[in-house]
Amino acid sequence: PGHRTTGPLRVAGLLALLGLLALPLAVSAQAAGPAQESDWRRANDAVGALRRGHADVLQWEQANPGASAVTPGGTTGAALPTAEAAVRSAWQVHRDLAGPLSRLGPQNAQWIAQGRWTALDPGLLRSVKDADEVLEMALQARKAWIQAVAAQQVRKHQRDLLDAAQAALELGQRMVTLGNWSRLQLTPVQLAATNARMDLRRATYAAAQAQATLVRMLGLMGLQDGFVLPDQLPEIPAQAMSEADVQQRAEAMRSQLPIAERLRNRALAREALHAYQAAHALAQDNQGEVLKTRALITEETLLHYNGMLKSVWDLLDEVRQQSQATVEAIGAQRDFWIAEADLQWVL
């Protein structure tokens, strides 16, 4: 009989629970023979034993570390916890930037490293020789860090998707063995597992490529294989940069530019602002409505499953959909930070 699960749901926790039940739940209770009936009852008892829901799943994971194995291909090396750290690392390697950084001063260098480029004095940027190279290096390092963190996040969730697909395949194969399914009924589950495996391989390759790009951008090719990165990108701001702020900054920049460059700058600023606004809106929708709704559906699916009103297939399908929604939200979050860096660069 069911129990109530509290707290935020994690895909790993759901998969751990499914791992406990993988063999017995391959058998329908109504179609089971005496031995199968006993297996099914043991599965039901296993569900009922998890009285505190998510807390018990976490406890089970801690007692069975193999169930939450580290994703293959994890990188060891120097830590780059923030985009600012990546920018400063790039500056240290490219020693020719020491001169313009010194002339810009520590406060301006800090604003640049933190991505607060609109705080810079436009007149100072025009007067310091090679200041544009300092900003260009900061831009490329920042974007490379964003791409690498996002690619690592996606790889982790593609692993979750593969785990769910493999759990479904194992159940399906056992149902075929027991005569509850035909091999034709198993084929969609097999294809789903194959597609999930291919997606993980693509994500792993993309993460490795993003790490290589970051290493190359920081001038450490041949000296460093990769970096230890944070588990996720920074949260997007609740409010996007206002159009009035952008216009004010653009006007301050144009006063420093020849007429031809002013016209070009106006067009670039308008284009960058539209991309930034669209990226912010998409990221907000994905991070807000989509993930919140998905979390509610997952919570209710698990409650119905625990109450035997939903099947294990319903739960596995919801795990896949929740992970896929998370992957899409990561992409939207990454696109926002890239658009934000491009807008700051234009301004």
Instruction: Give unreliable regions as ranges.
Output: 1-9, 19-37, 39-74
How far is the N terminus from the C terminus? 61 Å
Shape field: elongated
If you compute it from the alpha carbons, what radius of gyration comes out, rounded to the nearest whole angstrom? Answer: 26 Å
Residues in helix, %: over 70%
Question: How do the SSEs run, as a string of H and E?
Answer: HHHEHHHHHHEHHH
Give a verbal description of the structure:
The chain has 12 helices and 2 strands; from the N terminus they run H-H-H-E-H-H-H-H-H-H-E-H-H-H. With 347 residues, it is mainly α. It has a two-stranded parallel sheet. The longest helix has 48 residues, at 259-306. The protein is elongated, with a radius of gyration of 26 Å.
Secondary structure elements and their pairing?
Elements: H1 11-21, H2 34-49, H3 54-63, E1 78-79, H4 83-93, H5 98-104, H6 106-113, H7 122-127, H8 131-177, H9 183-217, E2 227-228, H10 243-254, H11 259-306, H12 312-346
Parallel strand pairs: 1-2
Helix pairs in contact: 1-3, 1-8, 1-12, 4-8, 8-9, 8-12, 10-11, 11-12
Tell me briefly what this model is:
The protein has 347 residues and is mostly helical. 71% of the residues lie in helices and 1% in strands.
